[in-house]
Amino acid sequence: MNILDLDHSLTAQAPIAQRLADGRATRLDLLALGPKLRLWSTERNYQRFVKQLQQRPKPRANTPEIFFVGSGDYHHLTPALLADLSEPVTLIHFDNHPDWVRFAPRRHCGSWINRALKLPNIKRIITLGPCSDDLENPQFKGGNLGAIQRGDLQLFPWQHAPTKVWGRIGDAAGHEQRENLLHWRNLADQDWPTFIEQLTLGLPTDAIWITIDKDVLASEDAATNWDQGGMRLSHLLHAIRALAASKRVLGIDVCGEFAKAPHSNVLKRWEAKSDQPPPERWSDTDLLRNSTTNDALITLFEELFP
User: Based on the structure, what is the number of domains in the chain?
Assistant: First the structure.
């Protein structure tokens, strides 16, 4: 298990500290680079991250690589973890946001899905759980509806009202278009075990990678830098277990910790203040939920991939 220490959010958590101490996890010191990568990154700094990532231990044969990455402000680093995949893979993406904006900087936590779609061995991305206002007027906000039209991207909100669009998008796995509205197949209304079973049967590849931003979870289960979704931890754990039972998991990365961000870059400071809820909303007790949830995730990973 790899702990990418970008923002100090992980190493003090008891389940991670214990595994670092006994050798079950390895820490990669990225603290000097972390502020430059947070929210968005220049290509130069992104490539510096790619180079430092090569210092991690080689994974054991037939065992998925597991990464804990810190704040969801670093989700755009996931394509670096996917770059060396040697076979076709479906990316299962748990997130409260679609991360599909086309007008953001190229290496941005809100646009990284578009980079992942261009990787040669990513055959489909399935996004599970958004509740955010990114699905309101997505064409105006730069959402990549074209990827949904092509079938390269499937999106299943946890709970969202119909989305107004201009023109014909067409029906897809996660929605039905009626006139100028996309009516979503909201996961909150589904029988979860049945949905996950059907989803697994329809995957186009035998191998998968799972990427998790814990802002997909309700506030009872996580406290992140972003707005929280509605999925419960029990749903996430069930999905991981079911997917691992039927598919070969090549890797899992987890972000969505809470970490204070004293941005020195004025544009990043403005973006964080504009887009993220105030950090003062979380108490120290609230933040303990992240450790509890990570403990449950790590315990499951160790059970599934001994």
Answer: 1
β-partners of residue 92 are 126, 210
Q: Are 165 and 145 in contact (CB under 8 A)?
A: yes
180 alpha carbon, distance to own chain's centre = 29
CATH number of the domain that 255 lies in? 3.40.800.10
Specify the pTM.
0.96
Residue span of the structural domain in which 83 resides = 2-304
The position carrying tokens 């400071």 is 269
Q: For the residues of 215-268, what is the DSSP string, one character each?
A: GGB-TTT---SS---SB-HHHHHHHHHHHHHHSEEEEEEEEEE-------SHHH
Bridge partner list, 128: 94, 156
Tokens of 180: 């100028």
| Residue that the structure tokens 């004025």 belong to | 266
Is residue 104 very low, low, confident or very high in pLDDT (cuts 50, 70, 90)?
low
Tens of pLDDT, residue by residue over 131-159, are 999 999 999 999 999 999 999 999 999 99
